[in-house]
């Protein structure tokens, strides 16, 4: 039974990837990217766990079935009839946009710099708290400046946009190289790829995408070794990095299974046995955790905002630094109906994508910064993209308002011909 489920799971993921390969714009769409992250991060962990004797009886089968249901919802929610969001219809002044990008970049760079000065044992492969969390929270402003600069540069060459972009890349690449952040690396690539898609209609060759998929899968399970090296030396030591056994690490995960999928299996099994659900309170608690500063209001006040949720089994002790996957929190909220979290996410992201392809700058900006957290909903937690949207409302939206052209001015400075062939993907 477990072997059959493994083949079905692999088949479902391959179908998502093949769906993305059928049209060139689909490589930027949520179902395909969900298939990519599942293929590279989760699937290698599955075969070893299918034959794991120490897992509770039926736990693997339940998790595998729920995972297939979640992946189906990611595809089903990507509605062909989704309409553009009207509230993204905003005109912007390009010069002011670049001023906003420069200010956000400088502000974010300050916190990036402060974060980079902290010892590696506080920031690499650990659960960060306190000051490092604050630095990361505000360093996100640099990502907003970078996204604006990339979009403006893709639309029309500008020395100011290029200068802001070059400035941002110094800090962005430092964080990627020093801490081995996969999400930031993929986000950076997607920023450029999507900007040139929106304004030039250029797409990454699909052959290159498949090659990158296999190379990414090969290296995915060696990032722990890479981070251990940079953590010990506060910088990459290339002689040590070259000695990482990339193939051996992947083989070990295939043979023994991975911690993330094991976490998901245990969480889902515990919820199925106790039938204690949080009914979405998980998301409220994550909002409180991320946006209510204990340094200002105190730990007790912050804790008072938290809603009670079911306690995890005492024998559940995940490895520090591993995730539990978004499937675990989805099941923990609404049982099998929790898969509709992925349907709703896919539908919302689809509408942003459709709006972005009509030439609306605000939607393009939002999609650039939403698609990577969205695809991590399956591999990490379903709240990631919600946190990004709230953060954008708090900081990006007020900043961008400086560049808004009043409604009485009818000049559409950011209008481009509608790419109707893209909107139907």
**What is Rg?**
22 Å
Q: How would you classify the helix and strand content by structural class?
A: mainly alpha
The count of strands amounts to 0
Largest sheet properties: none
Any idea what the shape is?
globular
> Could you name the ranges where pLDDT drops below 50 across 5 or more consecutive residues?
408-425
- Structure annotation, total helices: 22
Q: How much β-strand is present in the residues?
A: under 5%
| Mean pLDDT, all residues | 83
Order of helices and strands: HHHHHHHHHHHHHHHHHHHHHH
Distance between the termini: 35 Å
Helix content: 55-70%
Short description:
This protein is mostly helical and 425 residues long.
Search tags:
about 425 residues; disordered C terminus
Report on the structure:
- Helices cover 70% and strands 0% of the residues.
- It has 22 helices and no strands.
Topology, please?
Blueprint: H1 2-21, H2 30-42, H3 46-50, H4 59-76, H5 94-116, H6 120-123, H7 131-155, H8 159-179, H9 182-200, H10 206-220, H11 223-233, H12 238-242, H13 246-256, H14 259-274, H15 281-291, H16 294-297, H17 299-305, H18 325-334, H19 340-356, H20 361-379, H21 384-401, H22 420-423
Helix pairs in contact: 1-2, 1-4, 2-10, 2-20, 4-14, 4-19, 5-7, 5-8, 7-8, 7-9, 7-20, 8-9, 9-20, 14-18, 19-20, 20-21
